[in-house]
TrEMBL record:
Entry GO MF terms: aldehyde dehydrogenase (NAD+) activity
Taxonomy, superkingdom: Bacteria
GO cellular component: cytoplasm
Protein name, UniProt field: NAD(P)-dependent oxidoreductase
NAD-dependent epimerase/dehydratase domain segment(s): 85-211
Length: 294
């Protein structure tokens, strides 16, 4: 029996696992690939076999008390079949007592730049956000049917080591100019890992928490500040109307949504002190030479 199981034990999961391993707890993780499993074992994380894309998650065994679910939904459609497969496993195998799920702030849809707290009714627009909303609702039904305790984290854009738009900046791709650019929200990956642990330890059952550093900015400002920090040229500006030709469909779908995330519930109830409370602090903590080498 593991103390913690992390489904989708990638960048965030490995940081959460390190926290528990340092505290002397046992952790198991699920990834799909064989090299991914080797990487887990090298860090002292037991690697589980399974694949959420297959019915009953390809024979996944859930032998643990507490579960983090960090795997993303599939790339297509509006349903999260991966969560559906996981729930089948949990129901068949006396699943965990408590589950922390990483969702996204995309479930709120476009909010016209308004401040958004957890009371706001989700109105997901993009298919990727609709898949997340589907996952949230499936997990809620699992909880309501007596499955176990559930805490949902609606997470903003993750940045940090290896998670910066440097390639985009080097290519000189344009961004939409300031007045037309949407608000975006961020959280440093190290702080997100701390929030995940705090949510497992202190999050209230059945609650949703917005996870961001509480300092939204426009998308163009974000790219400018990263460019300045790494000595790269600021990206050229275009108008929104030109965006459809110059930007990828994925980027355009982000441009169609603007909101400012209220993170006060996270700070108050989870008691997390952010190490990187704004973008300036997060960038200052990065090693430019190391990032440039990635
Ligand atoms: N990027 C953002 O700004 C952002 C914002 C909000 C939320 N999120 C979400 O936050 C979560 C954690 O992020 P992260 O950076 O830690 O992601 P990550 O490094 O990509 O890790 C995701 C993990 O899920 C595993 N996985 C994917 N499909 C699977 C399947 N069918 N069966 C089993 N495992 C599977 C992957 O395994 P393999 O490596 O073997 O494929 C990987 O280890 C993700 O769900 C992400 O979508 C991201």
């Amino acid at each position: 029996m593991f103390d913690q199981i992390i489904i989708g034990c990638g960048e965030v999961g490995r940081r959460v696992a390190d926290h528990y391993l340092r505290a002397g707890a046992s952790v198991a993780g699920l990834v799909r690939s064989a090299p991914g499993r080797s990487a887990l074992r090298e860090r002292g994380i037991t690697a589980l076999e399974g694949d959420l894309d297959r019915p009953r998650a390809g024979g996944l065994r859930i032998n643990g008390r507490r579960l983090f679910h960090f795997a993303p939904p599939p790339r297509e459609g509006v349903l999260d079949t991966r969560v559906a497969h996981l729930i089948d496993v949990l129901q068949a195998q006396a699943g965990p007592r408590r589950l922390v799920y990483i969702s996204t702030t995309g479930v709120y849809g476009d909010c016209g730049g308004a401040w958004v707290d957890e009371q706001r009714q989700p109105r997901p627009l993009a298919p990727r956000a609709r898949r997340r909303w589907d996952a949230e609702q499936r997990l809620r039904r699992w909880r309501e049917a007596g499955g176990g305790e559930l805490v949902i984290l609606r997470v903003a854009g993750i940045y940090g080591p290896g998670k910066l738009p440097l390639e985009r900046l080097r290519k000189g791709l344009p961004v939409v100019r300031g007045q037309e650019a949407p608000y975006t929200n961020r959280i440093h990956i190290e702080d997100l890992a701390r929030v995940c642990v705090a949510a497992m330890e202190r999050g209230r059952d059945g609650e949703v928490y917005n996870v961001s550093d509480g300092h939204p900015g426009t998308m163009s400002d974000y790219f400018d500040r990263v460019a300045d920090h790494f000595g790269l040229p600021r990206p050229p500006r275009i108008g929104m109307a030109e965006g459809a030709d110059a930007l990828s469909p994925g980027m355009m779908s982000y441009m169609a949504e603007s909101r400012r995330l209220d993170n006060r519930k996270m700070l108050r109830e989870l008691g997390v002190e952010l190490a990187f409370p704004d973008l300036g602090a997060g960038l200052a903590g990065l090693d430019p030479e190391r990032e440039a080498m990635r």
